[in-house]
Amino acid sequence: MTTSISAELRGLFHYVTEARLPTAGDFEAYFHARGLSIKPAGPNLERPPWSTVGAPEDSFVEIGGKVAGIRFGDDPRGIGAYAEVCVTNGTLQEVEAVTGPLSKTIPRGSRYETMFVRVVIRGQRIAVNVAHDNGAVKSVNVQF
């Protein structure tokens, strides 16, 4: 199954409503409905090779193609769900097709350049951070 960054972001944003933001449970149902297997990090914090981090609350979904996979979970601080779209081949333009223009941010110890946008979807403000290497997207982090 091959999918694009734009398609995956639209799928995640679909669960934002005026009344509430999505939870990890919403994303689990979404990926199961697509016939995709979800693997939790588990007690040993196991993660697939395409993901650079792993926390106890993380779950991982293998996608394939331009999007290697998605790491998602509910933030343990109680501030909402998050999703990290790990990209094998993508451009900033593909992200901006869904989010609108990105703004450059100050690097925080990452080996990649980062860009940011706050998207308003159905009245909800969603933070989107994009890590890229000269325009080649590596990951898109969404905080719901």
Quick summary:
The chain has 144 residues and is of the alpha+beta class. Helix content is 19%, strand content 37%.
* Count of distinct strands: 8
In the sheet with the most strands, the strands line up as 1-2-3-4-8-7-6-5
Q: Could you give the distance between the termini? A: 26 Å
Pick out the low-confidence regions.
none
- Our Rg estimate from Cα atoms comes to 14 Å
**How many domains, as an integer?**
1
Overall 3D shape? globular
Structural class: alpha+beta
Mean pLDDT: 92
Helix fraction, binned, reads 10-25%
Percent strand equals 35-45%
Largest sheet: 8 strands, antiparallel
- Continuous helix count: 3
SSE series: HHEEEEHEEEE
Give a topology summary.
Blueprint: H1 5-13, H2 24-33, E1 38-40, E2 59-64, E3 67-74, E4 81-87, H3 92-99, E5 103-104, E6 113-121, E7 124-133, E8 136-143
Antiparallel strand pairs: 1-2, 2-3, 3-4, 4-8, 5-6, 6-7, 7-8
Helix pairs in contact: 1-3
